[in-house]
Specification:
Distance between the termini: 25 Å
Shape: flat
CATH class: Mainly Alpha
CATH architecture: Orthogonal Bundle
Largest sheet: none
Oligomer: single chain
Number of helices: 11
Strand content: under 5%
Helix content: over 70%
CATH superfamily: MetI-like
Length: 257
């Protein structure tokens, strides 16, 4: 019953919005606002074919590589910076500087350094996606419970075991929150990186549709991006529930008190 209720909640608002969109566009002759029916047909004609493999798949591969690298680097650096006070004090000014630089402005710089290539696009995604993971990992490590830390020290739980069973476990809720933000940022930067000197990808294709005044096709590309975002959100929630099962169980116990 709960699954049915959650599914109903998930589809009710989108269906209402589509219905409202259909009602508002009845009799409309606007060139810039497509109707649901023609847009659905354009969506199927555009993306259920060769364009899926030539544009969608390359974009998803760049996104996956960039975000995965950002997650690994962010967690690794965050553990070191959060654990060692002198490293945190040494790197904090530099981290604050680069965090304040908007990643899109790095695209021309990375194009000069790395050339117009997939490596450049992946680097753009990493340059923006790493910060939520890194900063959340640092804060998660710093907020480890002092009592638990003393308990580990008393029972001589040190080295790799301390990182595995205390630090990572305590910081994992904030790390997962950082990964959630990184997914959104990575998707945005994937599109932006493909809008500059690219010959494939969703960002490139949407810009080409816009320049050729193929409005319905342009909107269909935006719909593809929205659907990718929804799928990523669902997959992340499933993974988060699995990784943080102990955390949610603990919260349920606390609520039941």
């Amino acid at each position: 019953m709960n699954l049915i209720r959650r599914s109903a909640y998930a589809v009710t608002l989108p269906l209402l919005l589509v219905a409202l969109w259909w009602v508002l566009t009845i009799g409309s002759s606007s060139f810039f606002v497509p109707k649901p029916g023609p847009l659905a047909k354009t969506f199927a004609d555009t993306w259920f074919g060769e364009r899926f493999t030539t544009d969608v798949v390359p974009s998803l591969l760049r996104f996956a590589v960039g975000v995965s690298a950002a997650i690994v680097l962010g967690i690794a650096l965050g553990l070191v910076i959060g654990t060692l006070g002198w490293v945190r004090r040494l790197t904090e000014p530099v981290l604050e500087f680069f965090r304040a630089v908007p990643p899109p402005v790095l695209v021309p710089v990375l194009m000069v350094i790395l050339g117009v290539s997939d490596t450049m696009k992946v680097a753009v995604i990493i340059s923006g996606s790493i910060w939520p993971v890194l900063l959340n990992t640092v804060e998660g490590v710093r907020s480890v419970d002092a009592v638990l830390s003393d308990t580990c020290r008393t029972y001589r739980v040190e080295g790799v075991d301390r990182f595995r069973y205390l630090v990572l476990r305590s910081a994992s809720p904030q790390i997962m929150a950082g990964i959630r933000q990184a997914l959104s940022v990575g998707l945005i930067l994937m599109v932006i990186s493909e809008m500059f000197a690219s010959s494939s990808g969703l960002g490139f294709t949407i810009v080409q549709f816009q320049r050729s005044f193929a409005v319905d096709a342009m909107w269909s590309g935006i719909v593809v991006l929205g659907l990718i975002g929804v799928i990523l959100s669902v997959l992340f929630q499933l993974a988060e529930r699995r990784v943080l099962s102990w955390y949610y169980a603990q919260r349920e116990v606390q609520r039941g008190r």
